[in-house]
Write a sequence for this structure.
């Protein structure tokens, strides 16, 4: 490809990304969601000295309804499916009402059109927000389960170079669930899913906002799950 063609396709790609960002902004995440998401992702990824960006899907991933439980489950019970499927909350007894508000708000949002991450999301480390099409190209380049075949390899080689540059060498992709709040907006609940290579993982977090507006994690939800091929 000569330089003029390269510049032309590069310009088209940039324009397409700009149009996608404008489209997603019309259905963007609320101003309440973004500080919670930013606090959690910073806690999970912000202290890592990595050169590759965090690839973050604009669209939330879909889940079943959230439940509140007062029972305690061991890791063995969770692994053998004797506990409720994630997401579920296990709050202290004196905060059950607040947890029920969280689950009610989260479940109500499952019935509405998804809110999408916008470029206004502020993170202190390199990251790239991906459209649905860019996400599809990522999974063409890095198929789940490390499955190989001549067809998959041919498809992988055909991914346009601009997407490879956009991904910046990252081989994992992250997505965030809807965000549920309590009535006073001082508690939030959300999940984070990471996929790439042979494994995917899903973790859920309850967060509480302090008087100084700092969001911190609460031990109300069990450790996440990992699924490996």
């Amino acid at each position: 490809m000569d330089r003029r063609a390269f510049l032309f396709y590069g310009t088209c790609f940039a324009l397409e990304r700009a149009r996608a960002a404008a489209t997603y902004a019309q259905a963007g995440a609320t101003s309440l969601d973004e500080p919670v998401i930013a606090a959690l992702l910073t806690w999970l990824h912000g202290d890592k000295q990595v050169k590759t960006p965090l690839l973050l899907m604009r669209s939330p991933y879909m889940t079943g309804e959230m439940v509140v439980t007062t029972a305690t489950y061991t890791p063995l019970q969770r692994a053998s499916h004797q506990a409720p499927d994630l997401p579920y909350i296990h709050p202290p007894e004196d905060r059950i009402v607040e947890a029920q508000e969280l689950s009610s708000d989260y479940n109500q949002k499952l019935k509405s059109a998804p809110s999408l991450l916008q470029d206004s999301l502020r993170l202190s480390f390199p990251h790239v927000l991906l459209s649905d099409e860019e996400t599809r190209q990522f999974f063409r380049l890095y198929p789940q389960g490390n499955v190989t075949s001549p067809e998959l390899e041919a498809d992988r080689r055909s991914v346009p170079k601009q997407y490879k540059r956009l991904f910046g060498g990252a081989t994992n992709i992250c997505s965030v669930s809807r965000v549920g709040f309590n009535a006073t907006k001082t508690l939030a609940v959300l999940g984070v899913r990471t996929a790439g290579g042979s494994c995917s993982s899903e973790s859920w977090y309850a967060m509480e906002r302090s008087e100084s507006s700092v969001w911190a994690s609460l031990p109300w939800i069990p450790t996440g799950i990992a699924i490996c091929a």
